[in-house]
Amino acid sequence: MNICNSLRKLCAWRSGSKQVSIDAVIPLLTVPVLMFIASQTVYLTIIIFLITPIFIYHLHHNFLRFLPRSKFFLMWTITSVIVLMLVFEMCVVPLLEILPEENIFFIACVVSGIFCGHKTKVRADCLIQDDITNEDLELGEKNGELDCVTCRKRPPPRAYHCRTCQTCILDREYHCKWLDCCIGSSNLRWYLGCLLFSAMAFIYGSNLTMTSVCHPFIFIGTILLPDDCSDVYHQLDLALCFVSAAYSLLLGLIILSYLIYHIYLIYIGKTTNERRNCTADIYCRNGPFSCIGQLISCKY
């Protein structure tokens, strides 16, 4: 009995024992298994890539959205990055088709994306209360003006309430489920850096992998693009590399679209919340076939 208690104290967290929720464990098992199944044949690859978004949507719509703050999407992000890095370094690099400087640049992009993502989450957790000052709270209580009934506070202009974080966020864009934090004025720059380096890492890593396992051709100068990938499913390791490259390319294009969208919002001087509200106002006033020009130049 004493030995068991000693081992329990030795393996326990510093702040005490912590309970791991089942939604945080699912991605740890799901991502590697899905990638392994998709590596068997090209038909399974297509099926897995089509079913996975439907599976995630169904899981979120029926179960995850009822949890106070699910870690499913954050763990899916972490697991995907780890699995893709392991496949690249353990399966692609040993093929000796990649130059050392190309691998170093890829790792630098990955590390920079992880660092910016970490800073995004840390600043959201640390500065989330700094957006709402005590003076605003006292003033709202004295005048009886509580703009945010949920927070019982008077938020400053351009602050919006987040139901997940249970507070108001200054210049709130949206709650990013994949980083499990709100994006606002306190961490928008770090978030944009995370999007930039992550898009570079995913797309560049996908190109390096594709040109290593497929027959490449010279596009411009020393830039290679994949040409014929029909032989990759003859070996499991090559098929796994190909599937990881396709998954990486898909993630990179999605992240790149988010980056372009945020750059456009910065150009017009609006946040995602303001853009969404403005779009809803135009829709309500003019119907679904309202003028596209009004939608593009939507300003307060």
UniProtKB/TrEMBL annotation:
Q: Name one GO molecular function term.
A: protein-cysteine S-palmitoyltransferase activity
Documented EC number(s): 2.3.1.225
Q: Which InterPro entries match?
A: Palmitoyltrfase_DHHC, PFA4/ZDH16/20/ERF2-like
GO BP: protein targeting to membrane
User: Where is it predominantly found?
Assistant: Golgi
Q: What residue stretch is flagged as signal peptide?
A: none
Q: Which UniProt keywords apply?
A: Acyltransferase, Golgi apparatus, Lipoprotein, Membrane, Palmitate, Transferase, Transmembrane, Transmembrane helix
Catalyses which reaction(s): L-cysteinyl-[protein] + hexadecanoyl-CoA = S-hexadecanoyl-L-cysteinyl-[protein] + CoA
Pfam families given for it? DHHC (PF01529)
Please give the record's comment on domains. Answer: The DHHC domain is required for palmitoyltransferase activity.
**Family recorded in the similarity comment:** Belongs to the DHHC palmitoyltransferase family.
The protein, known as = Palmitoyltransferase
Query: What species was this sequence derived from?
Result: Microctonus aethiopoides
